[in-house]
UniProtKB/TrEMBL annotation:
The lineage of its organism: Bacteria, Pseudomonadati, Pseudomonadota, Alphaproteobacteria, Rhodobacterales. It comes from Tritonibacter scottomollicae. Keywords: Amino-acid biosynthesis, Diaminopimelate biosynthesis, Lysine biosynthesis, Methionine biosynthesis, NADP, Oxidoreductase, Threonine biosynthesis. NADP(+) binds at T11, G12, N13, V14, R39, S40, S160, G161, P180, N316. Catalyzes the NADPH-dependent formation of L-aspartate-semialdehyde (L-ASA) by the reductive dephosphorylation of L-aspartyl-4-phosphate. This is Aspartate-semialdehyde dehydrogenase. Pathway: Amino-acid biosynthesis; L-threonine biosynthesis; L-threonine from L-aspartate: step 2/5; Amino-acid biosynthesis; L-methionine biosynthesis via de novo pathway; L-homoserine from L-aspartate: step 2/3; Amino-acid biosynthesis; L-lysine biosynthesis via DAP pathway; (S)-tetrahydrodipicolinate from L-aspartate: step 2/4. It comes from the Bacteria. Residues 4-119 form the Semialdehyde dehydrogenase NAD-binding domain. The gene is asd. Belongs to the aspartate-semialdehyde dehydrogenase family. Coiled coil: none annotated.
Amino acid sequence: MGYRVVVAGATGNVGREMLNILAERQFPVDEIAVLASRRSLGTEVTFGDKTLKTQDLDTFDFTGWDMALFAIGSDATKQYAPKAAKAGCVVIDNSSLYRYDRDVPLIVPEVNPEAVHGYDKKNIIANPNCSTAQMVVALKPLHDRAKIKRVVVSTYQSVSGSGKDAIDELWDQTKAHYNPTDDYQRKVYPKDIAFNVIPHIDVFLDDGSTKEEWKMVAETKKIIDPSIKLTATCVRVPVFVGHSEAINIEFEDFLDEDEARDILREAPGIMVIDKREDGGYVTPKECVGDFATFISRIRQDSTLDNGLNIWCVSDNLRKGAALNAVQIAELLGREVLKKG
Ligand code: 2RA
């Protein structure tokens, strides 16, 4: 006996990964429905060895379906999540719409699995921002051992975080660089992503930070501990898939780098690749398609009494979005619905 599962946004990067991961992890599916907007209606998507035809999100009846993984953006989520929730289908939403709602649990299963029991306030569970998910997986085991006071994080985020068009843009700009048209040669494109880095993701806020940076602060506080002080600089880099983060941590208590490495090695969802030699660390290219959050460059920060630096890399379409959503579905099934 398994679950009747819906994937809404099945033709997007994250929606397709959700289907891949549901199949890879052999999630107990009795029946699956894949939904898309009218403009993508009928598009075929793959689920394991099956090919499924997308149905119309606008007319779909969620009644009798156990859970719906949403990857449709905040605007569409606002329209369809309440409808699904009201029909008794638990929504696991990848957009930012509900993340900061006190009646909606924001969950990274390796970090705060107990929060799943709060799903029934709105019948909605929120998935965190991709740059937050991998970071809190790394921070939580260290916080449990030495209580984190402050985090300074710089991110190096791949273009797939902002969708399929951004992947095409990087590809086209890179090609244009080697085969410049007259127009391209004449103009200098300072804000191109190809061969560049851009310190701007999402919109600017009044205090000069960006909403992406604000999300990392707000979500870390909600998922781990509101007392943690965090400041972030989120940067877009010319990488197709895989977010990287340089994380500086100040603890209440001293934590030796070797003990930190041992703790991380034993922590759920983490793979430590950390040798002080050429290639003794992980790069984003190596994380693509993997479930793990990779940690390298673990070392004391000697400028602080209780400081540590780490390098954190993960597939932003997987742990940063689709995998975390499927893990929440597994948690919901195991702890609450208990059908599978
Ligand atoms: C990005 N975190 O990387 C944002 C949304 N996925 O663009």
